[in-house]
Amino acid sequence: MERTGNELDLGIDGPGFLAVQTKGGTAYTRNGGLQISSQGQLVTASGDPVLGEGGPITIPRGASITISNDGTVSANGAIAGRLKIVEFSATADPQSMGASYYTVAQKDVVASPESKVQQGMLEGSNVNPVASVIELINAQRAAEGMRHAMTMIDSEIDKTAVQDLPRVS
User: Are 97 and 27 contacting, i.e. CB atoms less than 8 angstroms apart?
Assistant: First the structure.
């Protein structure tokens, strides 16, 4: 988790996903970079409403927002809703919708009580870009070495074919 200090950034510690209402139905995401829409709804960066247990969560304009570890959203100290945080069953087959959204059959969605929300944090990448570039360069070098070896073997086969096959008759 990376600390951002933004009260609308949420990191989810555990297997949970935020439920989001899209034009295509309910989707799930771990991208916790949230905003308040012009209608006062808690939304994703794409503008899709984040679902609470009772539907979209509305925040009064200019309110101070706190989000507890269990996902309870408070605006100026008054509870505005509780985030719908779910996880997928072991047999689920999540399908990517792009924009870090996933969809899954409703029967494979279960509540995720062990997931904890961390306000002011975002989930960081689990990829080290420098290490990835080094691995890519090493793979490229290995592939180039294999190509060179194959060229040499091919050249030896051609040489043998030209020199030795005519003598076989």
Answer: yes
Q: Is residue 13 exposed (0-12), middle (13-18) or buried (19+ Cβ within 10 Å)?
A: middle
pLDDT 10s digits, 112-158: 989 999 998 888 766 677 878 888 999 999 999 999 999 988 888 87
Closest alpha carbon to 115 in 12, 20, 27, 31: 12
- Read off the pTM: 0.70
CA distances for 121 relative to 27, 96, 118, angstroms: 22, 24, 6
Determine how many CB atoms are found less than 10 A away from the CB of residue 3.
11
- Partnered with residue 136 across adjacent β-strands are none
* Amino acid making up residue 73: V
Apex CA 13: angle with CA 86 and CA 90, to 5°? 45
Q: Residue 81 has which token pair? A: 């809703």
**Residues whose CB is less than 8 angstroms from the CB of residue 69 and which lie 6 or more positions away in sequence, other chains included:** 116, 117, 118
Judge contact between 3 and 17, C-beta under 8 A. no
Domain locations along the chain: 2-122, 127-169
